[in-house]
């Protein structure tokens, strides 16, 4: 990041991605100074960065047109707008999938059987493209919200919509036919500015990686070290620290958070004791 030029990052002003976007900037050291929903442009303390609060759906175009240097929005929105931007980083929040669904009682049981039918969606371009890639050609009914109601009121035979838990589909008597794409929040930049964002990308990546990591510390009989090192899912080599009692060592290792629950009983059975599982603030590899 240059010391003179301020960077402008567009982030969602409201909606599902807003809290995660502000939380990520804060965790990376870019604290929005006077954040409120009425303030559309906010200076971040600690770095020459300004956050511009706009609609998530508009961010791909703002970035593409160079109105901002980069932006945080849903990968699904970038694809739907077919924006000419560079995806710099997947951000690990706002996860969802674009799924096709039909009413429980529908005779349609597979995605391919949607061919020739009417499908309601707020993602007309993406739906048409992703289904056509599977040789499924549908009549699109473009709506701007409440997609789930479309089959019940006879507007469409099925829908294509974003799903996270699947609860909304079930509540509305819909059955999923499968996933078209997975999505999550992403940092995107225009082709011209991508190179100037190294500092920002490194800072955000360090937080994203830290959130999926844990720092493990434990004591171990020295003669169990080789077997423990074999099962540790650690990138690189763990630190091994001598203890006062020469029969024991302390092991420190960075491990994927998702694997900790499986690892702990294995470590215990190999003689590990005083096991500490610590959160990590930043990881730079
Ligand atoms: P908003 O409409 O402003 O609440 O934001 C919509 C964006 O949030 C979508 O484009 C997705 O990237 C993301 N998202 C995450 N989970 C869901 C979900 N269950 N339904 C809709 N959007 C979701």
Sequence-ordered SSE layout with sheet pairings:
Blueprint: E1 7-12, H1 18-27, E2 31-32, E3 41-45, E4 49-54, H2 59-64, E5 70-74, H3 75-81, E6 85-90, E7 96-103, E8 118-121, H4 124-132, E9 139-142, E10 158-163, H5 167-171, E11 174-183, E12 185-190, H6 198-211, E13 213-221, H7 225-231, E14 239-242, E15 248-256, H8 260-269, E16 273-279
Parallel strand pairs: 1-4, 1-5, 8-9, 8-10
Antiparallel strand pairs: 2-3, 3-4, 5-12, 6-12, 7-10, 7-11, 13-15, 13-16, 14-15
The protein binds adenosine monophosphate.
Overview of the molecule:
By secondary structure, the protein is an alpha+beta fold. The protein is globular and about 75 Å long. The protein has helices spanning 18-27, 59-64, 75-81, 124-132, 167-171, 198-211, 225-231, 260-269; strands at 7-12, 31-32, 41-45, 49-54, 70-74, 85-90, 96-103, 118-121, 139-142, 158-163, 174-183, 185-190, 213-221, 239-242, 248-256, 273-279. The chain starts with 6 loop residues before the first strand and ends in a 6-residue tail after the last strand. Strand 3 (41-45) and strand 4 (49-54) form a beta hairpin. The longest helix has 14 residues, at 198-211. The strands form three sheets. It has a seven-stranded mixed beta sheet. Bound molecules: adenosine monophosphate (AMP). Adenosine monophosphate (AMP) binds next to helix 3 and strand 10.
């Amino acid at each position: 990041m240059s010391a003179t030029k301020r960077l402008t990052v567009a982030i969602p002003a409201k909606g599902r991605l807003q809290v995660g976007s502000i939380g990520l900037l804060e965790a990376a050291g870019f604290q929005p100074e006077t954040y409120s929903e009425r303030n559309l442009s906010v200076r971040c303390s600690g770095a020459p960065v300004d956050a511009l609060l706009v609609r998530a759906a508009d961010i791909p175009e703002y970035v593409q047109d160079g109105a901002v240097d980069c932006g945080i929005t849903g990968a699904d929105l970038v694809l739907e707008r077919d924006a000419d931007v560079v995806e710099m980083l997947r951000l690990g929040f706002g996860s969802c999938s674009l799924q096709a669904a039909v009413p429980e009682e529908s005779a349609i049981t597979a995605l391919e059987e949607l061919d020739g039918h009417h499908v309601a969606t707020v993602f007309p371009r993406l739906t048409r493209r992703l289904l056509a890639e599977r040789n499924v050609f549908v009549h699109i009914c473009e709506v701007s919200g409440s997609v789930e109601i479309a089959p019940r009121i006879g507007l469409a035979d099925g829908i294509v919509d974003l799903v996270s838990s699947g609860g909304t589909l079930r509540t509305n008597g819909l059955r999923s036919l499968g996933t078209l794409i997975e999505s999550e929040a992403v940092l995107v930049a225009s082709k011209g500015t991508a190179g100037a964002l190294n500092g920002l990308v490194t800072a955000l990546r360090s937080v994203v990686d830290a959130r999926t990591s844990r720092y493990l510390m434990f004591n171990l009989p020295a003669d169990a070290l080789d077997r423990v090192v074999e099962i540790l899912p650690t990138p690189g080599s763990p630190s091994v620290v001598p203890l006062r009692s020469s029969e024991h060592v302390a092991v420190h290792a960075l491990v994927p958070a998702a694997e900790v629950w499986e690892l702990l009983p294995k470590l215990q059975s190999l003689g590990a004791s005083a096991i500490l599982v610590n959160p990590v603030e930043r990881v730079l590899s």
